[in-house]
Please model this.
Amino acid sequence: MKSFLVTGGSGFIGGALIKRLASEDIKIALVDPETPPPAVEVFLSEDSYVKGSILDAELIDCLVSECSVVIHLGAEVGLFRVLDNQLRGLDTNVLGTRAVLDSVALHRKKVIIASSSEVYGQPSLTPIAEESPRTFGPTSVARWSYGESKAIGEFFAHALSKELGLRFTIARLFNTVGPGQTGAYGMVVPRMVGQALRGEPITVFGDGSQTRCFCHVDDVSRALIDLAESPDAVGETVNVGSQVEISILELAERIINVLGSSSKITFVPYDQAYGDGFAETYRRVPDISKIESLIGWRPQKTLDDIIVDVAEYLRVNPDA
Model:
């Protein structure tokens, strides 16, 4: 039986991925400093969860040696979380990724690296292709450290491939959302859905004209597994996301309409939401033609599906 090691498997994407792996009868091991939630724990055997950090190179080396494929999700995520502790984010995303990739190269395994659309910075072209130029602001702006830390992980992958034969695929994820995600760290959909369910004002940062494309976590987990099982994807970098673009103001209006909420919309300036010196990216739309040609993947779930699924989860888990 093929065995997968999932770093960061207790997180939002990790939970959805583990459920899908379990449904496909794939042996799973999970490493995360956080205990997996009960909804994920039911899919794990007694010894498949290891409490630990990707910064623990010795532990990671032991776990990698026993698996067939690594799906590397372990990272600091969420804009609020990154801005709150920039150093922790850099350590985890850079040093932790290096520890994982070194071990994968040493043991001749295969790794799927969950990167981010943040590696594009402020894109000048839309839709964004994998070879599009990357544009960043000054290093004094903390927001850019997350995208650059993820890019450094990609550089490690290419260097280790050239020097040690690392077999990798990089998946650049664009705004993955769905049930199980928390709004506490700046994730806009669960935050707005929670406000709508409570009848509270829905807060839109800035004027709401910034646009995003939201992809259901079930579609993303399917993409990660299909990439792991595709020999054609080795050495490739692919965008994973939806191409349905919507402004944040339109998103708030859509959530109100889909849920029949009485909430009103209120606007919060960026400096109040994030502090002084925040830099926004105003459009982020992926070109997904490459992953479609490689493995035939496209998103199947709509934005309305996402809103309904997140709302159902929050109704059952109001403290999430």
Remarks:
- The chain is about 40% helix and 15% strand.
- The first helix runs from residue 12 to 23.
- The two ends are 35 Å apart (CA to CA).
